[in-house]
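User: Could you check the structure of this?
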Amino acid sequence: MRTIGQHRDEVAALLAPVLAERGTETVALDALADGAGAGRGYRVLARGVTAPVPLPVFDNSQMDGFAVRSTEAGDVVRVVDPIPAGAVPAPLEPGTAAPIMTGARLPDGADAVVPVEATPPGAFPAALELDALAVPDGTTAGTFVRRVGSDVALGSELARAGDPVTPALLGALASAGVGDVSVVRPVRVLVVSTGSELADGGARDDGGARDDGLDGAGAVIRDANGVALRAALAEVGAVARGVRLSDAAETFLPGLESAVGDWADLVLTTGGISAGAYEVVRQVLEPRGLVVTPVAMQPGGPQALGRVELAGRRVPVVAFPGNPVSALVSFEVFLRPGLAAAVGAPDRATAELPAAESADSPVSKHQVRRGRVADGCVHFVGGPSSHLLGHLAAATHLVHVPLGTDTVAPGDPLTVWSLR
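Assistant: Sure, the predicted structure tokens are below.
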């Protein structure tokens, strides 16, 4: 059996060309702000952006107050018409001060702002009634003024190729009048759930006959993997489609090739790679390039990967076990790290915490348990079995019991990954 580290490296090597060859697309800022169809909106710039205007684009007031000439510090000047944000003000004449709101353009002739708090009324709108203003001694040029270009200079590099498109970057681009940008296209993943017994997630059994001869009542298993893995992929910026294929070898390959077409960058399968009699993924895809590589991990021991001949091209395929917890743990351990790093999504927060209770573990495998953290300790949630999806849903952490450990005692340190 491979170790977890060995298999993770193999998955990373398989994924590297996928990430490098995605191509680019031009997307409007509004679409990027809405996610642009890619998971939670994790996108990466394909090309750098040069600032077409300086930011700020004009000198403006940092405070609600009065625009003044610093050379008139210590003088009493006449108050003229106010300047709201968005107005293009008239030049400020000598011997005058203009009420000005935060963000409003500084008039020509003014080079400082006196905060409204420094006036006898202390606030607007009462300060609008002032006829004259005593410019405080010590008022200097630039006081409470945001200078043009003080944030971003005209023609400077606003963002570089490879930068993640963060909310702050979107705001800066919008401020500079950039309407769209070139971004790296999201990874397109075909999620394949295998099994003649599968029905839509959430579908109700109707007890009717099925085309494979099985009775609907009691034979249907709802497809949890397709829904869960598509959601997991969306969290790291991938675009996923799901398809369910039966265990019949004669229909599996045509169905898979039709779904792959020229769309999928990566195929992620669940089920069909173990030692049973109907392991269709293994039986059909091994001759085409899939390599079955068991890993010393529980759950998630059965694993496979390879570049497989599909739809006239060699397509990267990662194959996970079919049990829902096995599939999701496999995603977290093997596939999520590379996809997250490619788009700047955060890593799982990791900590080492003492176990709150004892547990057994197979000494020849790295066990991944589910848990919750309370009072500085990690508490196991449910058992180690790979079908306990409800327990995984209730857990907040994955708990790693390393290879070579047969018993965990209370207080033993364990590595935990936060899932939330």
